[in-house]
Amino acid sequence: MKANPGGQIDVTCILGRDQVVREAWDVLERQSLVIAAERRIGKTSVIRKMQAEAPGSWVAVLRDLEQFHSAAEFAEAVYQDVQQHLSLWKRNANRAKKALEAAGGIEIHGLLTLPKQSASHWKSVLIGAIEDLGIEQVEKRLVFFWDEMPFMLENLRQREGGSVAGDVLDVLRSLRQAQGNFRMVLTGSIGLHHVLGRLRSAGYANSPINDMYEMEITPLAPKDAADLAQRLIQGENLQPSRLTESAEAMAVAADYVPFYIHHIARTLRQTGQRADPPQIEAMVRDQLQDARDPWELQHYRDRIDTYYPGLTAVALTVLDTLALATEPQSIDQLLATVKSRQEFDRESLLKLLKALAMDHYVRRQGNGFAFRFPMIQQWWRLDRML
Amino acid sequence: MSNFSSLSRFTPSRTSPQVLRKLFVQRALVIDSQERIRESVLTGNKHHLLFVGPRGFGKTHLMSLLVDWADRHPTLREHVRIAWLNEDDTTSSWLKLLLRLHDALGKKYPTEFTAASREAFAELPAQQAAEQMSRLILKQLAPSESTETSPEAISPRPKRSRRRRRVTKVATSRTLLVFVENLDAVFEGLGLEGQQRLRAFLQEHSIVSLVATSTRLFGGVQSRKSPFFGFFQIEHLQPLTVEQATQLLSQIAALRQDQALVSFLTTPVGRSRVRVIHHLAGGNHRVFVSLSQFLTKPLLDELVPALERLLDELTPYFQERLRWLSAQQRELVEALGRASRPLTVKELANQLFVTPQTASSQLQKLSVFGTVRSHSRGRESMCELAEPLLRMIIATKDNQLESTRRLLEFLRLWFQPSGSSKIAESKVGQTSRRRSQSRSTIGSMAETIHGILQSGWDVNQWRKQVSQLLARRSQVHELSDVGHGLVRSLELLRNSPLSSEALEQWRKVWQDMRVSISGGSESELNIPLRLFDAGIRFLQTHDPRVSFDLLSEQRLLLHEVLPESKPAAEVNALSRDVSG
Q: Which residue among A63, A84, A299 places its CB closest to the CB of B163?
């Protein structure tokens, strides 16, 4: 197996995700899912594995929603996916088709297009498509894996306005409540809470995903991470002195995140180094300090300005403090540090810490807070020259 | 000799794969890429590779090798369909990219990807046509299905039983291996929306592997907001080392059955000649391939005529590149080509009668194209042409042939191996003469010059002794010895206790000689005096940025003599401005 950072991984090579895939399918028996995780943790690999290993009673359809820029395009795609699921008879006499005809839509070679002037009919097409699933008793249930949902909502917000993005979320929620024979799995590189925050600031007041189960994808278990590292060391012929020791060192250096394990193996190969622990540690240090940011970590700093508008200085103080700390810091310790620089209250700090935790910067540890990932903590120290 | 005639300098894809294989000297890169392509074709792991390197660095050569290898590989060929999108066609939308893909596949697999199937979608709205095209391509990648390609054949929605077959079919589809040249231009044409659709296509159908090239890193893969951020495994193509360049020339010479040249390239003198060319060409593959077309042992030994002919050969290539620039950009390039040192933005603006803002904006674009390179010195950006050969071509066109020859002569002697005696016939100036300089001669000249300095801080005495030395060497036409010795004497000054003021007086003594020797015209001492001047200023200030006053090929020589004068990282100031 070759290192493949950023590429698509064969489902048989996706290691250490069996448990989370089983749990996810168990949840889907009851309700729909939102899968949250820091970017590069491996969300897309998990949903591809789920899709490939769908139990016999399910049909899984994967869509990358980033490509859609209007609610009509999204409704058309859902219509097509549902049509593929239905029998021929049902396809000819279903509600979505009628809604489509009412809107003046056309279907050519199996593809539906809503005319631009009737784009507002997307709701009836979307609702009709999902309701059609309930009318005919098919032997399998449909689950939509909708990757990059936040990007699509952002596309809609920008092109059609926040109200249309909110409408899409509301329609999907009502369909989930009304129709029990389908499920959806929403994932994305940016947290849905940020998109919802933007919609709320424009007047949207609903809670469109509070009926869904939120599941977090974490880094691999140490054993699985070492297993992956070992396979990559062998696949790249990195000739370590002691394979097990090197694989463990690689897993630890990468915080057990598969993307970084792939990166380490790839870089060792590119630079012609052996996979021995000292080389691994030195190489990771170099990568973290490389001005070209090969591990794409700069976004941890860049997004703070947009994620926490008006609170950038406080967020930076908190993260700088935690980056230097060797022990978890209590909220009172953090508050004292923040207040030594500016006026700030405990409630606001608590709220900010919760937001930082949702965005995977920090985590609760005992009665205190610490960086979520040691590697990001190391990078933060190096990048901020602390 | 027949193999030699089939070698294309500018379109490696027209050269026979057997020849290309022999000529690609960076074998490790080829093997690594082949391993990744092999895994992409035979497993569900799909690698996406992006090779980044300036023009002439062998990107198309590498692509040609990989395409040929994948196409002929006995295990892979049944499991792969190859689409090679060449660099000349334009991609303006997601639909156009799909059409290009289909056309490229149709060219290689005409019975599977027919023109008729493509034409059937001609009257559809763009979005539907794109959807149909992507369906058509996906369907044709499935080996077990019919190869009938009319839209009607694929468009009716499948029956439920057929749907189940489709799931199986996708699982066993052939891998679509897409080779894309100039990915930056393709992404620019696609725009954000097209890139998002491409990304979704790749994510939803894990049967595609991209192998792409670009002359530079660009927003589409570098920006964190881009759908393809972090998507590719990026490999920066490296310039040829001197050893690799020598190996390349030797392999082409062997193909031409020129045993004399092959033998000469194994000698220290032969390698020193290649070093000179390498110093100017910066390891550019295309330059060495061009050179190989006419190179013989005598030409390489003489060097200056060889390089003059090389410049002549490369002129149409560079002219073609300049043709795509705007008039203002061309003027900037020409001004930099005529300059004997890097210029500031303000100096360029004054020369061209434009505002500094206009000059700066155009220079930034040229920097992105890789034509201009710049370095920050305080608030100034020192600009020069990124490729010394382009500058030499412009200078030659501008009747500055003499200065080009002086530079070549200087470099030839600079890289002369220790201990060698007879070099070659020189034709510089009016006099032909035998050259006998070697590094040891130059070393003793450096000591002689340093001895004058150490004889005591008496400026008049320095002036007198230097003048006598120049007169003596001039009489025997060995002035170039003095130039080389002067530059090498900087090494002896590195640990000298001389004050900054004494160094300044020493520098002035030599600068005054420049006028008395040449009367202001081009002389053998111009380049060494320039290097000496920068070297002394570095020893006075310890500021590496003083070397930005020198053109890149001269700067490298100064770094060789005074390694501390090399800046920690040579950041392209204009590129930084652009990205910022």
A: A84
